[in-house]
Design goal:
The chain is mainly alpha-helical. The protein is built from 16 helices and no strands.
């Protein structure tokens, strides 16, 4: 009992509890959104919405440009001193990320109708495509602010801002449903534009003085850490695209209703993945502080213990009876139940594979290994899904994802052991 109490009193434990509770609240909102939408939209409409929001989420992660890793690696030490360098680091990172993102989003705006015609095949009107592209920039800015708060260990504030925006989004969606104005376009507006605007407004009200200090800081190119940042940027591109290629290729092969079923199943899985993310967000600064071998064991034990929570959730999803899905999502989406079940298996591997990734990225600080791992993952998923979908339909991607996660995780484990042997046993 004494050891248990000591464990829960540990700062890392408290932060993980706060962040996990906030994340579960976010999951509850996500589940509520899905519950409302599947009762209003047809499977085909839900499929279009899943693809468009999937594009927005993938691009917002891709256009992170590796700044998440940079923030977790360098901001904690700057935050301890709270010197001028902290504000310069934040503004410089935000400036370069925004500039690069605007260039890509502008290109997307121009080419989106053509891409939709030849690849995504959603047949959505142009204004919905442009609305999706606009929401990408707002998602990028929201993610940047959240990462700054997480790296500063402001987990309570981050979750308050995020879930307050979720609450107001829920109110708006319920109102639109009551006046029969729910459509794919209106949902994208609420999720991508209005929700992010509310988040920024609350932040501005609460942090006006801090934002003023950041605004007055100068922009320095070296603060962006181009070598580290861009290597991880390329790595994250491959991973995020690979993680969505199953859905995109299902849309490419024209499986309209199946895309809706798979999109709902993927949404269920993604809610649990967000729990993995919330845990690794708290663990990341600790891994960046490791300098010698003797400091590793404690962090590894905590990482394994906390990551067993989402692992258990994936196991629950695997064994969840079909009747539960019918009760929640109606029998209109019954085919999503077995898909969600098999889709949970590869993400058990993904969850446990996060541990060597944390070590490589933040302790060793060699994102090139993550890049190689993610290239493996992307190639296996893309080629495997392209071959398996015509043969097995929606049941092809889960098997391919399992193989991809296993291969990439094994590679990271091997490289972690190689780098561990190079570490010092003690501080000179």
């Amino acid at each position: 009992m004494k050891r248990i109490l000591s464990f829960f009193k540990h700062p890392t434990s408290r932060n993980i509890i706060v962040n996990t509770v906030g994340n579960y609240l976010n999951i509850a909102f996500t589940a509520l959104f899905a519950l409302l939408l599947v009762r209003i939209l047809t499977p085909s409409q839900y499929g279009v919405l899943s693809v468009l929001l999937g594009i927005a989420y993938v691009l917002s992660n891709i256009l992170d440009f590796g700044t998440t890793a940079t923030i977790y690696s360098y901001l904690p030490s700057l935050y301890q001193t709270k010197s001028y360098n902290l504000y310069r680091f934040i503004k410089s990172t935000f400036f370069f990320q925004s500039i690069f993102s605007l260039i890509v989003i502008t290109i997307l705006m121009i080419s989106f109708p053509f891409l939709d015609k030849v690849f995504f095949k959603t047949h959505a009107p142009k204004w919905e495509l442009y609305l999706t592209a606009t929401s990408v920039l707002l998602f990028i800015w929201q993610n940047f602010i959240l990462n700054i708060l997480y790296a500063s260990k402001k987990f309570v504030l981050a979750n308050i801002y995020l879930n307050f925006a979720n609450l107001l989004k829920t109110v708006v969606i319920l109102y639109l449903a009551s006046i029969h104005m729910i459509s794919v376009g209106s949902i994208i507006f609420v999720f991508g534009i209005l929700g992010n605007f509310i988040f920024f407004l609350v932040l501005f009200i609460q942090k006006r003085e801090l934002l003023s200090l950041i605004a007055r800081a100068e922009v320095k190119r070296e603060e962006f850490r181009f070598g580290y940042t861009l290597t991880y940027f390329v790595a994250s591109q491959f991973f995020n695209l690979g993680q969505r290629m199953d859905l995109f290729l299902l849309s490419y092969f024209g499986l309209k209703n199946e895309v809706g079923y798979y999109g709902l199943s993927q949404k269920i899985i993604l809610t649990v993945i967000s729990t993995v993310v919330s845990i690794t967000q708290v663990l990341s600064p600790g891994f960046s502080d490791i300098k010698i071998k003797s400091e590793i064991n404690g962090h590894l034990k905590r990482a394994v213990l906390y990551l067993l929570i989402p692992t258990a959730l994936f196991i629950v999803i695997f064994f969840l009876p079909k009747s539960v899905y019918t009760l929640i999502f109606t029998n209109k989406f019954d085919p999503a139940a077995p898909i969600a079940s098999v889709l949970s298996l590869p993400f058990i591997v993904y969850t446990l594979g996060s541990i060597p990734m944390l070590f490589i990225l933040y302790t060793v600080k060699k994102p090139k290994y993550v890049l190689i791992s993610n290239i493996m993952f992307f190639l296996i998923v893309s080629v495997g899904c392209y071959i398996s979908i015509p043969l097995r339909g929606v049941y092809g991607p889960p098997l391919v994802l399992t193989i991809a996660f296993l291969v990439s995780s094994i590679y990271l484990v091997i490289m972690s052991l190689v780098e561990y042997k190079k570490m010092k046993a003690s501080i000179d």
